[in-house]
Design goal:
There is one protein chain. The chain has 10 helices and no strands. It is mainly α. It has one domain. It starts with a helix and ends with a helix.
């Protein structure tokens, strides 16, 4: 019975609520609070499932990271809210220019086109964050966690959060996707990320070729640097398969996650984590000048 339950967790508790959220918003466009309610509900469901069916029981206990991750989740959701507000204001100005726009299409067409575009933007920034030094210093905060659980989904530097979302928001604005559909997309990503990082024993079988879920994303958080250069997809693993960045999964991933260097980044305060990349970049530049 447990085996079958593992295969229905993601469709029932992630995809179905997302479908319900988008349908309600499409028929009641003034209910801007609906995504927040669904996000909170999804978070509560994940908390319960992590207790009932954890992938790694040791990860169910706080390692002194809970308070820090709560700061991160409020910070990054605030960035999403500001981004949506700015998008809405810019879209009003765009309408005055009478440019072609996807908002002429049905909401569901806008949603799926917009979701693929936005997700590719996330994939692109994530990928170059592993190959570009200054971006890695920002992104390292996300990899610093020594357990993978639902709140890791928002453990990100605020500047990196802005950079990750920018390509997608720009493309959606150029194409003229309706603000209400953009709000659907933002919370689709956020709800999915809860499950992608959840410490829940669930499986997706062949559908891991489509969705970037926990059983594949855990490989991306391995402590061994060579093991994390791939599986960059946020929602869709399709990009990894098409662009050759899919990691081989020979067995269950190691439960040793986090960073060896710097070893103290994990437990730095919220403000220190936000200062660390800039201090490290300054030191790195000084070393390069000394080598020259």
């Amino acid at each position: 019975m447990k085996k079958y339950f593992e295969f229905i967790i993601y469709p029932i508790f992630c995809l179905l609520p997302i479908a319900m959220m988008t349908k309600i918003m499409a028929t009641n466009i003034d209910l801007y609070f609906i995504p927040g309610l669904f996000y909170i509900s999804a978070m509560l469901i994940v908390i319960v499932l992590e207790k009932l069916s954890p992938w790694e029981r040791l990860w169910t206990k706080s390692q002194g990271d809970l308070g820090l991750d709560i700061f991160h989740i409020f910070g990054n959701l605030s960035v999403s809210t500001i981004a949506f507000t700015l998008y809405t204001l810019a879209f009003s100005y765009r309408n005055e220019l009478e440019l072609p726009k996807l908002s002429m299409l049905s909401w569901i067409a806008q949603y799926f086109i917009g979701l693929f575009i936005f997700d590719f933007g996330l994939y692109f920034i994530h990928r170059i964050s592993h190959t570009t030094k200054w971006l890695w210093f920002l992104h390292a905060i996300h990899h610093s966690s020594e357990r993978i659980y639902f709140l890791n989904s928002q453990r990100r530097h605020l500047l990196h959060e802005v950079l990750e979302g920018t390509p997608g928001f720009v493309m959606l604005m150029i194409l003229g996707v309706s603000p209400i559909v953009v709000l659907m997309i933002i919370y689709t990503v956020n709800i999915h990320l809860l499950f992608q990082h959840a410490n829940i024993s669930y499986k997706m079988g062949p559908f891991t070729n489509i969705f970037s879920v926990a059983e594949t994303h855990r490989w991306h958080h391995q402590r061994d640097w060579k093991e994390v250069q791939g599986n960059y997809g946020a929602i869709f693993s399709l990009w990894d398969f098409l662009l050759g960045t899919c990691l081989p999964h020979k067995a269950e991933p190691s439960k040793s996650v986090g960073l060896d260097e710097p070893s103290d980044l994990y437990r730095m305060s919220y403000l220190k984590q936000h200062r660390w990349p800039f201090e490290t970049m300054k030191t790195y530049k000084s070393i390069l000048r000394m080598k020259d």
